[in-house]
Predict the 3D structure of the following.
Amino acid sequence: MPPSTFFTWVQETTFAGVPLWSLCVALAAAVATYAAILVVLHLLTRRAKVWATQSHSGMALTLVDVLEGTSRTLVLVVALLVGASLLDLPGRWESRLSQLWFVAVALQMGLWGMRAIGIGVRRYVERHSSSGMTQVSASATLMSWGLRTLLWSVVLLAILSNVGVNITAFIASLGVGGIAVALAVQNILGDLFASLAIAVDKPFEVGDFIVVGNVSGTVQVIGLKTTRIRSLQGEQIVMSNTDLLKQTISNFRMLERRRIVFTFGVAYGTTPEQAEAIPGVVRKLIESHPELRFDRAHFKALGSNSLDYEVAYIVEDPAYNLYMDLQQSINLGLLREFKAMGVEFAFPTRTVHIASAPPQAPAAAVS
């Protein structure tokens, strides 16, 4: 067949009312679009990998993983839609093509969102999981389920709205239903979010020694609803995560040094010279220990039963037993030094003055 005859046949032939040459142009445009999208994705992915390698950026790694999750099927659909847009179609088909464009893009955004959520949850588990923190895997599962449900709900509502469905009543129903469910399970949700707050913010971890109110002990297990603490007396104390976070928590894991303040009193029979020498004696005792750093020692007040002194020093090691051993050594040293100085420690005393009755005049004689 001569070329001219072939071109004439192509121009005159129709398929489903569409000229064959238009179909060929649309197909060529679809193939070119598909190839162009794949090339652009490849270049973006390679550039993101180079960025991630050079900067060790978590954002770059996330971008690489998200781009690698692009659906080839949806890319093909987009390419076919590009080709179809070049055809001379009836008006109703043009509106359908625009809707298909939105559906394809929305679905791809949903897939990218799913990929990002999976990456985020996986990194959350790797960052926060540790032995004894049983709530991390459970909270990660619930978080993943909630985020995925929210994502696809938004995608579905957007698609329905684009195709002409009135979603106002549906959204209102979801809002009312969500409020009802939240009110029904508010206590459970409160403990769940408290568990998530502990996992993310980490006010304490398993193995930390904490003091909460009148409870003190070592954290053994951080669960989805409760935290278990082994007290100094040996019993296990179970506390709700919500109640735990409502109180002030003292965490001794971050303790690097201890600042100790203690007081003592000496008897009022102490001379001014002895009272003036006592701060120097205390300083000498504290500085004789390499683990201690002297802060201050002062004759603080004239008490009701004693001359009161206040002493402050720093223990460079946070170990509690070491602090008690050093305090004991200081106390014994004070006993020895004060005995040598002739100074006595004060103890509560009370002086009672008894007034004698005045003598009475003799009674007059009766005649």
Summary: Strands lie at 14-15, 18-19, 209-212, 215-222, 226-231, 236-240, 249-251, 258-266, 292-302, 307-315. Residues 91-128 form the longest helix (38 residues).
